[in-house]
Amino acid sequence: MAIDQFLVIIGGLGLSTLVAWYFWFSEKKAVKIESSDSGIQEAIIKVKGGYTPDVLIFEAGKPIKLNFIREETAVCTEEVVFSDFNKRATLTPFKIVPIELKIEKPGEYGFQCGMGMVKGKLIVQ
């Protein structure tokens, strides 16, 4: 095996490790959402290849309003599903789609695209 082949293999393994770490092992930063003067906890979630932010922290018992803005036309992200609440919504590209929830019980609640490939989490304390 020539040195250039060896370097290409080592480089490929290094990049594969970096990609695996980024998608599966890197810690996601949670964003704490504060209540407005009206008592509503409101967040804007951008949808483009994923949810940004994808982990949000809320206070239990207060109304939650999630404003999704889909900045792409990919089929995967055209729907968001909150299976714990039997709620789903179609996300129109480049428009804000509000989803309102009121979660009384503390816990972690997932949400995802209709295909289950893009995921996020609501942490209620």
From TrEMBL:
Gene3D superfamilies: Cupredoxins - blue copper proteins. The keyword Membrane applies. The chain crosses the membrane at residues 6-25. Residues 17-124 form the EfeO-type cupredoxin-like domain. InterPro entries: Cupredoxin, EfeO_Cupredoxin. Keywords: Membrane, Transmembrane, Transmembrane helix. This is Cupredoxin domain-containing protein. It comes from Stygiobacter electus.
